[in-house]
Amino acid sequence: MKENKFTAWVKSHKTELTIAGGVVLTTVSTILLINNLDKVKSLIQKDVGTISIQASNIDNNVPGSPTAEPNHISKIVDVREHFRKLSEGCHPSPEKLAEAARKGIELMDDQTIVDAHTREYVA
User: Fold this and answer.
1) How many domains does the chain fold into?
2) Overall pTM surpassing 0.70 (yes/no)
3) Segments forming the whole domain that contains residue 123
4) Which of 38, 57, 76 is at the close of a domain?
């Protein structure tokens, strides 16, 4: 089927048309942002206020934690049991091999089992 001139022109100039579309989109977005700058600022400030309120409700004093200090935000995460790939040349300990055998798991030479534990992140 014969292509018309317009279709052929679009196909031959698709890169230029894509760039022009991006420029137009960026220009329109910038104009809208500038015209609504006050509304955008109020939305950002509202979100920052929400984050500050949420952060202030966190208990900073974690019992038994040497790193817990006032004005620090702690996050406690329960890490479940998982496999870990060991560094090159390392092998799982005999204890972890026995544990895997008891659980019916076959570890590869470069894998080990990490026990479930609690991890604390201090910011």
Assistant:
1) 2
2) no
3) 62-123
4) 57
